[in-house]
Amino acid sequence: MSHHCQTSTSTIAAQHEHKGGFCPVVGDTHAYCPHHKGDSRSPCPALNALANHGYLPRDGKNISVFGLIRALVEGYGLSTTLALLLSIGAVFILGQFRKISLADLARHNLIEHDASLFHRDARKGQEGDITNLAESHWRTLRTSVLKGRYMAH
Ligand code: HEM
Q1: Is the CB of 47 under 6 A from ligand 1?
Q2: Which terminal residue of the chain, N or C, has fewer Cβ atoms less than 10 Å from its own Cβ?
Q3: Closest Cα to residue 118, out of 86, 142, 146?
Q4: Mind telling me which residue stretches traverse the membrane in this protein (predicted)?
Q5: Tell me: the pLDDT tens digits for 15-72?
């Protein structure tokens, strides 16, 4: 049975690196391991989850368009056509035809826009803040949902 990585505050998690995109704790499995220092993550929770489960390189770096397509198909069961459209669309919008890192997806006003449910808007001249959860956004959304606003029943 494979090990399951702890949260990023645990000792195991604090000690290891995802060198070369692999996790030395969970090995060649799709078990969950959170990102560690130096890993790259995106504004997209779905793609981050693919990296946390090793469908994308766990360090979130050196991802080819084919790697992205394969991860979407294997991880989420997307059709190859949809995965192809999304992935090729992404590299065209970014203008990056070689390998990408997940953080490249945060280039402001390319794919990333000021429209996140959980992240603050980008500061002038900077990329979107993708690493910090804006707790006030989360509280507003939670209250609205609990009061039945915005949700169709
Ligand atoms: C190649 C495929 C994909 C790319 C390049 C991509 C890229 C992105 C980017 C750049 C954002 C940030 C948007 C912003 O803040 O303006 C985003 C957000 C998001 N993506 Fe993806 N994504 C992909 C696939 C998916 C898939 C398959 C799902 C669902 C399973 C998904 C779910 C989401 C959600 C829910 C958000 C909103 C997060 C928020 O409110 O902060 N994405 N995506």
Answers
A1: yes
A2: C
A3: 142
A4: 76-97
A5: 789 999 999 999 999 999 999 989 999 999 999 999 999 999 999 999 999 999 999 9
Q: Is residue 102 within 6 Å of ligand 1 at its C-beta?
A: no
Question: Is the distance from the beta carbon of residue 118 to the nearest atom of ligand 1 less than 6 Å?
Answer: yes
- pTM passes above 0.90: no
Q: Token pair of 146, please? A: 């609990």
Return the structure tokens found at 128. Answer: 């979107």
Protein residue closest via CA to atom 29 of ligand 1:
46
Mutate to test the pocket of ligand 1, among 40, 42, 47, 116 (most ligand atoms within 8 A of CB): 47
Sign (positive or negative) of CA dihedral 127, 83, 56, 66:
negative
